[in-house]
Amino acid sequence: MIRFIIVLLICAGASIGLVELVSHSFNIVKPTFLYQTVIFLTFATGVIYGYLYRVNKPDIFVQLYLFMMAVKLMGYGGYAFFMITSDRAGATPNVVFFMMLYFIFTILEILFLYRKINQQQ
Fold it and tell me: Shortest CA distance to 45 belongs to which of 89, 79, 18?
């Protein structure tokens, strides 16, 4: 679990650094919710992974995973709605960055969970 947290934090830091670098180098608009999005997604992904990592029964794991995905989508949808309504002018960069980070963190979570499940079999 520690490896996942370390990789998650490295990806979070790298995403901030990459956005800062690209926005300064290519004069692209930086998301106004950059740090809030990174903190929110990093925390949520870490908590979800922590719960799923501790489950040892496959039937409970599947149910919990599906429940977590439903809660995650509702929570993330609410956050995206908040970003859009709070900053209409910067909605596009905020949502694009949010979706990119969401996909990166979800792929990371799936890879680590897949590795854990394969080690148990």
Answer: 79
